[in-house]
Amino acid sequence: MLKADNISRTFVRKHGAVQALSNVSLNIEKGEFVSIVGPSGSGKSTLLLALGGMSSPNGGTVSWNNQSIYNWDLRRRSRWRGSSVGFVFQAFNLVPYLTVYENVSVGLALADSGGKNSECIDTVLAELGLSDRKDHVPSELSIGQQQRVALARALVKKPQLILADEPTGNLDRETGKEVIDVIKRQHTTGTTVVMITHDPDIARSAERTIRIVDGKIET
Is residue 18 within a helix (H) or strand (E), and if so which, with residue range? Predict the structure, then answer.
């Protein structure tokens, strides 16, 4: 379903070139839950962005259902991300002047919603315990509530693939467990999940763990 084949990614910085990924290959099957672990600066986030069509590798291919996503034009790749991929970031990336309801509605606006409407938003907010916060802006929420809004935005379009970058990194342990429980419930519906984490306990929530060090997958 999702495949990286010998992908490399190099960034040019003032002090010289930095190779973030070096000939990375992996296969992620439909409906699988995979965690990616490794030290800070090892290339985890770069790999996730490459898998999500957000950062073109300098070499190699990333394929979705046997189609190379970086051979698509930008519009097609954007449509794919909007309809099929749910991103969850450590920084939440909520729009500060939009309400909870409006932030979640962005998830549908970016997707080919196929008739999904406000009922879908109300349903996902209820599932995440946010119904009584839908008219609040992010600054009026706790950190845990903000992360749940970010999850709701990713889940409302019922994506085939969830890419989560340290989704519990800013949370206390109990709130982090609640967030992982939501992701695990979504996985049971058949959604493929790829999650970056530095926490070994969180990593064990996945079916398989991949470790990356210095831009390479340890075998």
Answer: strand 16-28
